[in-house]
Amino acid sequence: MSFASLITMNDNVLTAMDVETTGRNPYRHEVIQLAMVTLDCNLNAGPHFYTNIRPEYPDRMEPMAVSTHGITVESLQTYPDRHEMADHLWDWFQELNLAPGKRLIPLCHNSQFDIPFVQQCLGHDIYNEIFGYPTRDTQALIAGMMDKSAYNGTAIPFPGASLGRCCDVLGITLDDAHDALADALATAKVYQALLRRPSW
Prior knowledge:
- By secondary structure, this protein is of the alpha/beta class.
- It has a single domain (7-196), classed as Nucleotidyltransferase, domain 5.
- The protein is built from seven helices and five strands, in the order βββααβααβααα.
- Strands 3-2-1-4-5 form a five-stranded mixed beta sheet.
- The radius of gyration is 17 Å and the shape is globular.
């Protein structure tokens, strides 16, 4: 099924987004990989922004973070810092040629993690120039589906709410998990699959 537009977006652009970081605290740790994938009215991938970012505080990299995403401090030395990255992101955003006042609407899997990191990385002023609301969150949608099933005493549709487990249930291939671009693309596919379900 195809629509001329997703009317609830009001001409804003839904954009799948994911980050990899040096740890779990957005006020201490940093974004070291950022991906954003714009989605068309059928939720198919369009232009994307994807980069590694050199951390300002490399000594704060948590060993658990490295074991998750495999990105080391040493591998980031030639990449832009967050200020240079913000300039590149702004240029990319301008090249999208959105209508005046329109923004990107984030689609995340666990926006409570991603959004604070991106806000701290870009600064709230730039963040608010680029991103609008309300954020879409596939993890929150799936958690709601699990609650609904438990409340009604029916079979739980997902064994967990991680992106990997959701992809497994929905038959979505997630290659290179914990790469920001791979995860953003998978999040878009999960959202598309959820919207196609006849009932939640």
